[in-house]
């Protein structure tokens, strides 16, 4: 076992810069990959399929979305495509300034009927929702947004897409990886661990990895809150 471990360690030491750059690029690309080409991926994940068929976007929801775009003054050159989603809140992906454009999933619940009158049961905590019961009625009322609330929810997604916040949200992972690597290498040099046993360096690398993950979690959460406040 020592042979392969030493070979892997030597390979990482020789190619660590290339491996770091490749890993950072891979992390960034993985998190932003579906935004340049959102149409097939996002619709495949979130499309509303009642009775085994994809639900087309109703004229009412189409008018609602166009009203939002007009109220916000979105240029006609920005490409948007809307579809009906099974979720209870809008979803979005893409960059409207790129040729592939952006997609916005509008919940079928915005129409009210598709949720409460669907043949497909709604299961919460393992129990089927009875829309005729008092608890079911309260849930239905909570899920039924006013027209202004629906427009606000869609406008929030449009602002998110127009600001290209997806690119910012993809930055913490590669930044934390690069920072963890740089600080880890510097600390090992300062502590003289490169001249010590491999087990000690492995333990230090494990501690550094945990610290890097904690930094990633905090930075992601902080960025999310900052974007929420900014948008």
TrEMBL record:
Question: Organism's domain of life?
Answer: Eukaryota
- InterPro entries per the UniProt record, alphabetical: TMEM177
- What cellular-component terms does GO give this entry? membrane
Function comment: Plays a role in the early steps of cytochrome c oxidase subunit II (MT-CO2/COX2) maturation and is required for the stabilization of COX20 and the newly synthesized MT-CO2/COX2 protein.
Its family remark reads: Belongs to the TMEM177 family.
Q: What protein does this entry describe?
A: Transmembrane protein 177
* Phylogenetic lineage: Eukaryota, Metazoa, Chordata, Craniata, Vertebrata
């Amino acid at each position: 076992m020592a042979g392969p471990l030493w070979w892997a360690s030597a390979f990482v030491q020789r190619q660590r810069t290339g491996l770091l750059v490749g890993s950072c690029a891979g992390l960034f690309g993985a998190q932003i990959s579906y935004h340049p080409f959102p149409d097939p991926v996002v619709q495949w994940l979130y499309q509303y399929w009642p009775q085994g068929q994809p639900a087309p976007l109703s004229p009412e929801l189409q008018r609602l979305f166009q009203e939002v775009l007009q109220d916000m003054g979105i240029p006609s050159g920005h490409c948007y495509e809307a579809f009906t989603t099974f979720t209870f809140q809008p979803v979005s992906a893409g960059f409207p300034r790129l040729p592939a454009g952006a997609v916005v999933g509008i919940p079928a619940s915005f129409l009210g009927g598709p949720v409460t009158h669907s043949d497909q049961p709604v299961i919460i905590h393992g129990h089927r929702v009875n829309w005729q019961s008092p608890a079911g009625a309260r849930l239905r009322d909570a899920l039924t947004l006013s027209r202004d609330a629906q427009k606000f929810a869609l406008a929030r997604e449009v602002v998110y897409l127009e600001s290209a916040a997806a690119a910012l949200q993809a930055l913490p992972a590669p930044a934390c990886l690069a920072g963890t690597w740089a600080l880890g290498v510097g600390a090992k040099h300062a502590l003289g661990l490169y001249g010590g046993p491999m087990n000690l360096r492995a333990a230090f690398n494990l501690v550094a990895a945990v610290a890097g993950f904690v930094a990633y979690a905090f930075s992601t959460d902080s960025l999310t809150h900052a974007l929420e406040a900014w948008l």
